[in-house]
Amino acid sequence: MTNESTATSAAGGLDVAVIGTGYVGTVAAVAFATLGHRVVGIESDPAKLAALRAGSVPFFEPGLGEFLTEAVGSGRLTFTDDLAAGVAPADVVFICVQTPPGEDGRPDLTALRDASMAVAAAATGRTVVITKSTVPIGWGAELRRIVGAVGSAADTAVVSNPEFLREGSAVNDFLYPDRVVLGGEGPAELAVVTELYRPIIEQSFPAGRPELEPVMVVTDTATAETIKYAANGFLATKIAFINEIARICDQAGADVLTVADAMGLDHRIERRFLGAGIGYGGSCFSKDLEALSWFGDDHRIDLPILGSVNRSNAAQRATVVDKLRTGLGNLSGRRIALLGLAYKADTDDLRDAPAITIARSAIDDGATVTAYDPVVRTVAALPDVTIADDAYEAVAGADAVVLVTEWREFADLDLAAVAAVMAGDLVVDGRNWLDPLKVTAVGLRYVGMGRSAAAG
Ligand code: UDX
Question: Same domain for 260 and 407?
Answer without folding.
Answer: yes
